[in-house]
Amino acid sequence: MRTNSMIMSLNSPVIENLTTDLAQTSLEMEDFTRPAVDCFVEAMYTGEVDKLEKDIFEDVNKMAHVFDVSWLTKRCLKFYKSDIMNFEDDSYEDILFACEIASRAHYHLKQTKLVNCFVKTIAARGVDKGIFVTRYLAGFASVPKRKIDMALMIARDSLDIIGNCLMAYLSFVLECKSFDENSLYLLQKLNTQNFRNTFPVKFKQLTNFVVSLSLQSDCAEETAIVENFVKDNVQANESINDLKEKQESAVKTLESKDTYNYGADYCNIDLNAETENLTHKTSATNTDDPQLGWIMPISSSSSSLSEDGFLLRLKTTGYEREKKIRFDFILSGVGGSEHRRCFIMECRTLDLWRYYISRYGSPLESASWPYLENVPSVQVKHWTITKTSVNLTVVCNGVTVLNFNFLSKIMNSKADERQFWFNWSKSCVSIKFEATFEKSLLLEKRR
Description:
- This protein has helices at 5-11, 13-21, 34-46, 57-66, 70-84, 92-109, 113-124, 129-136, 145-155, 159-173, 181-189, 192-198, 200-214, 220-229, 234-256, 406-412, 415-424; strands at residues 269-272, 277-280, 294-295, 301-304, 310-316, 324-332, 338-349, 352-359, 381-387, 391-396, 399-405, 428-435, 442-444.
- By secondary structure, it is an alpha+beta fold.
- It has a 6-stranded antiparallel β-sheet with strand order 3-13-5-9-10-11. It has a 5-stranded antiparallel β-sheet with strand order 4-12-6-7-8. A two-stranded antiparallel sheet has the order 1-2.
- The termini are far apart.
C-alpha cells in the first residue's frame, strides 16, 4: 500500500522519525489485518474513523499506540466505551469479549484506560464480579498470566473472590497435594495487606490453607513464596514451622501407640435425648481412653430419639482428610409422617472443613459448600454437635465454628423454601450415622 509519508508523519512522531531521521521508505505491517491497516491509513488522511469496527478494533488500537497517534488513541477509547462496552443483555460472551480486549491491551501495550473503563462499566451495570471472575478463571492450570492479572484488577478490593477461586482450585483440581505455577504466581500477585484488612477471616483461612499445603512440599521456591505471602501475618508466619513440628509430633505419638484394634467389632451408637448423652448397645473394648469411653462408630447405624435435641461428641485425629462425616435426621411430621434432612462435614486440611445442610439424599457437589469458621489448626480435634428446634451448633476444641439458625432461614427464605427450613426445626424422631472415615474417627459414649 502506497501512502504519503508527509501526511503520515504529521499524525505520528514515530513514523516521522522512521522516514525523516532513519530514511526508511517502507514499514512492515504483517502483524495487522488488511482491513485494520486500511482503517488506520484512512484515519491518517481524513482524521475520521468511519471504518472502525469491533472485529478490527484491537489492531487499530494497537497501531495507534505503536505509532503514537494520540488523537486516534482517544478515538479508540471512545469507541471502546460506546460500542464494545455496549453489552446486549449483559451476556457473558459480550462481557468476555470486552474483558479480553482490555486484558491484552494492558499486557501488550501497558494501557490501563481500557481496564479502568471495563471495571467501572461492569460495576455500574451491576454485573456480579464473583460469578464473572470464577468463570473467567475456569481451567486455571492453563490460564495465561495476563488473565490472572486481569482477574485481580476486576476484583480489586473484593479479594475474597480471588481467595475462593484459589482455594477451590487447590482443593479440587490439585487435590490439596501441591501448588503449581499459576497458583504460586497468584499468591505472589495478591495484595495481602488489602486482603487481610478487608476480609480478615477469609484471609486467615487462605493463609492457613496454603501454610498447610507448604508443609508437604520440599521445594525451597514454594516455601519461600508461601513465607513471603504470610510474612505480614505474625500468627501465620509462626505457624509454618510450628504446624510442621506439631504435625510430625502427633504422627509420631499415634504411631508409637497401639491405640486401635482394627480387628475388633464396631459398636452401634444410641442417642438418648433424656440424658443428651451417647450410650452403646455392646461393650466397647476398642478405645483410646477407657476413662472417657471413646468408641468406633459403625456406618449406617440408626438411633431413636424420644425428644427433640441431642448432644453428640466426636473426636478426629487428623487422618480424615477428604473424608465426609454425615448425620441423617428423621424429623417428625403431621400424622406420623417423617421428613429427612442431613448434616455433613468434610475435611480438606487440618483447619479447613466444609459443611452442608440439606434434604435427605445426594447433596450438591462439595465445591459449593461453605466452610466452618476458625477451625483450630491442630491434629486432634474434639467436636460437639448440638441440634435444637432453633439451631444447629458445632463447637471444635472450645471454638464455635458453626451456629446455624433455622428460624432466621425460615423468615428470610423465599416462600417455596420456608417449609424446608421449618421442617428442620421440628422434633427429631431418630438419627442415622453415615461416614466415610479412617479408623481414627471416634465417638464419645457416656454412662
